[in-house]
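User: Okay, second chain of the day. Same drill as before: sequence in, structure tokens out.
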Amino acid sequence: MSLGKNDDVPPPPAKGEYHIKFANREVAVGWQQLMQQVPANTNAAWQLMRKTPSPAVETNRHHRLKHDLAFGLRNGESYPQWQIEVTGGGRVWYLHDENKQTCWLTQAGTGHPRQTDR
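Assistant: Same drill. Structure tokens below.
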């Protein structure tokens, strides 16, 4: 099964959990690579997004992005952008839409995203 833009990250959420969706095809491919290379860590990230996408207490591995990456646009709306460190270099970024209980994956991959280098 090929996953792409606007598709749900399987499986569907249980009652009270957040939907997780791919913002584009590239993110779906990056997610599949993470699942193949580090399935336990990727599943842990999936669990965090499902249950606590914007934790009250941030950690070094799960936090809001800063500066010009702190917000992202989706369909003309601005949403807070979060990061989960899956491996030393691998990251998952997502927009948190609290109103629709949805996390839009905007970045997923095994390599460190260069946009955060300052």
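The chain has a mean pLDDT of 90.

User: Thanks, on to the next one.
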